[in-house]
Amino acid sequence: MSRDHLSAERPASGAEPSAHGADAPFLELLARGAAVDAYERPVLLARAAGAPAERIAELEHAKLLALRVRSELEGRRRREAELSALFETAHDLAGLRDLDAVLPAIVQRARSLLGTDVAYLSLNDPARGDTYMRVTEGSVAARFQQLRLGMGEGLGGLVAQTARPYVTDDYFRDGRFQHTSAIDAGVRDEGLVAILGVPLMLGPHVIGVLFAADRRARVFEREQIALLGSFAALAAAAIDTANLLTETRSALADLERANEIIQDRSGVIERASDVHDRLAELVLRGGGVHDVAAAVSQVLDGTVEFTESADTPARALEASRAEGHAVRHGTDWIAAVTAGGELLGALVLHGHPGLDPVDQRTLERAAMVTSLLLLARRSAAEAEQRVRGELLDDLLDARDRDPRLLRDRASRLHADLDATHVVLAARLDGTTADADQEAAARRRLWSAASHLAATRQGLAAARDGGTVLLLPLASGDTVTDLARRTARQLGTAVHEAVTVGASAPVDDLAAHPDAVAAAYAEGRRCLDALRLLGRSGDGAAADDFGFLGLLLAGDRDIAGFVDRTVGQVVDYDERRGTELLHTLDAYFACGMSPARTKDALHVHVNTVAQRLERVGRLLGDDWQGSARALEIQLALRLHRLSGAGRP
Fold first, then answer.
1. Distances 417 to 396, 404, 459, 511 between C-alpha atoms, Å
2. pLDDT tens across 371-430, in order?
3. Contact 143, 186 (CB under 8 A)
4. Within a 10 A sphere around the Cβ of 85, how many other Cβ atoms?
C-alpha cells in the first residue's frame, strides 16, 4: 500500500494517531461502532509514518484490547437482543390461544432469531411411535413438508429419542444419524446442509423437535444452540397452554351439551309417557303389530315396520335377540320380537342412525308389546291351526271324499285346493335324551309350521314325529326352492336345524285327496334321503337326487331290487345274527380295502377276510366286479333309505 494512500486514510485534522495516546483512535472506533477491519488502520498508519517499534507495539496492544471490548460489547448487545426477542416471543405466544396459530408463530420467530433459510417443527405421535412434520417456514419441497421420522431416524428422530439437542454443519456427511432413503430424499429436495434441532420438552417428556437449518455449510455457535433451546422451552409451554385451552374449550362444550341434554330430558320423559299411553291404548282396543309400528313411527319421527325373521338381516337380528336390546344395522335399528325363546320377527326403524338411548328403549318397549300382541294373536289362531291340521289329516287319510265339502272347509281357511300344491315333510335334526325337551321342540316346530302355512294360505299338521305342510306352489317357483326356503324359515323360527323333503307338484286335491297321501310318502322318502346323505338342515325334492331320485319316486320296485341284489346277505344276517351287511357297507366305504375296513369296524383283519369270504359264497365270485359292485352299493343305500334295516 502506498504512503499517499495511507495518508488519505488519516483523520481530517491531520493529527498522528499518537497525539492523544495509543488508545485514542480505538476509542473513537469503538464509539462509532466501526467494523473489525477498521481497527487495523491506526497500526498501518503508524507504520507508514515510520513510528518507532514501541509505538507500534502499543498500538497493537491497544488494538487487541479494543477488539476484545468490541467483542464483549457485541456479545452483550446480541444477548440483549436475544433476551428482548425471547421476551417479545413469550409475550406474543401468551396472546395466542389456538394451537394452529401458536405453531406457525413459533417457527417464524425461530427462523427470524437465528437468521436461517428454513425453520420447522415436528411433533411426536404416541400412537404410531414416530415424529411427523407439523409446521415449516421457508420450505419449498412438498416431500420434505410431509416427512415422518421414526424414533432414532435422522437428526430429528435422534433428538426426539434422546431428548438432547443435535447439530450438524453437513448433514449428508454426518454419520451419527441413521440415514433413511425417505428422510434423505426430503432433505435433499429442500437443499438443506446445516441443521440444528432442539427438543420441545414438557417435564421429562419430549413432545416434538424445533429445527433451524441453512442451505449452506454453517457452524451453529453455543449461544445460538442455547438460544434456540430457550425458545423451544417457551414454545413447549405455549403448546401446552394451547392444548390445555383446547381441552378446556372442549370440556366447556361438553358441559353445554350436557346442560342441553338435561334440559331435553323433560321433553324425553313426556315423549316416553306418550309412547306408554299410546301402546297401552293399542293393546286395550285390540290393535295389531302394524298399529304399534305406526304409533312408534310417529313418536320416533321415522319409519318403523314389523318384518318376518327371514326378511331381517340375520346377524343383526340374532345379536338383538341375544342381547335383549335394539342393535344398529347400517342406518337402521333392529329390535328382535321374541317370546319364550322363539323368534317371532323384528321391529325395524329405517334411516335413523342417530338414535339416543331413550328412543332406543322406546323401540325395545314397542318390540315387547309387539311380542305380547303376537302371542295373543297366536292363542286366537291356535284354534284355526288345529282346524287346518284336521283338514290336512283328512286329506292324508282320505276320510272325506266329497270335493265340495273339502273346498268349503279349505275356503274358510283361505286355502285353495284347486291350486297346484307341494307336500313337504319336515323334521328336526337335533336329538335329545330328555323326552320333555324333545316334545317341546316338536311343538315349536308344529307352531312355526302352522304360522308359516297360515301366512302362505296352506295347511300344516303334526305327523310321524315331525310336521307335514301343504303349501301352494307360486308361479315361477320351483319345488326345490320352496323346500329349501321352508327349511331355512322353520330352522330360523325354532333355532334348530330342520330338514325338509318335498313331493312333486300335485293338482286338484279336492277331487283326488288320495294324491296327498302319495305325495307325503314321496316327501318322507326325500327327507330320509337327505338325512342319510348328511344334508341335515337342507331341503330337496326327488328330482334333486338324479338317478337315485328316480328310484325314490313313484311305484318303483325298490324292495325287489334290494332283495335280488343283497337279499341273501340280509337273510343270512337275520337268521344268524351276523354283521355281514354292515361289513359289506364298511368295505365299500373304505375303498374296498380290508386293512381300512378292519380299522373302521374295530375288528381283526382276519375277521374281515372271513366275513367277505362268506359274502362271496352268498353273492357269487364276481361280486367285486365293477358292475356287480355298483349294483351292490346302490342296493345297500336303498336298503337304508327304505328303512327296512340298517347295516
1. 13, 11, 10, 9
2. 777 776 666 555 555 656 677 777 777 665 677 777 777 777 778 878 888 999 999 876
3. yes
4. 16
Window from 92-101, 203-212, 627-636 with minimum mean pLDDT: 92-101
What are the grid coordinates assigned to 29, written together?
472506533
CB-based burial label for 216 (10 Å; 0-12, 13-18, 19+): exposed
All three cell numbers of 41, joined, read 488502520
Q: 634: buried, middle or exposed (CB in 10 Å: 19+, 13-18, 0-12)?
A: middle
Helices (H) and strands (E) in the chain, counts: 22, 15
125 to each of 147, 157, 163, how far by Cα in Å? 13, 12, 15
**Spatial contact of 641 and 635, defined as CB atoms under 8 Å apart:** no
Residues 77-89 pLDDT 10s: 666 666 666 666 6
* 629 touches 623 (CB < 8 A): yes
Q: For residue range 285-303, list pLDDT tens digits in order.
A: 667 777 787 877 777 778 8
Residue type present at position 343: L
Q: What is the mean pLDDT of the chain?
A: 80
Calpha distance 66→56 (Å, rounded) = 15
User: What nine digits make up the cell of 341?
Assistant: 325363546
Q: Which helix (H) or strand (E) holds 591?
A: none
To which residue does cell 299338521 refer? 461
Here the cell at position 245 is 385451552
Lowest model confidence (mean pLDDT) among 218-222, 417-421, 522-526, 545-549: 545-549
Q: Which residues, other chains included, contact 360 with Cβ-Cβ below 8 Å and sequence gap of 6+? A: 325, 326, 333
* Residue found under cell 286355502: 415
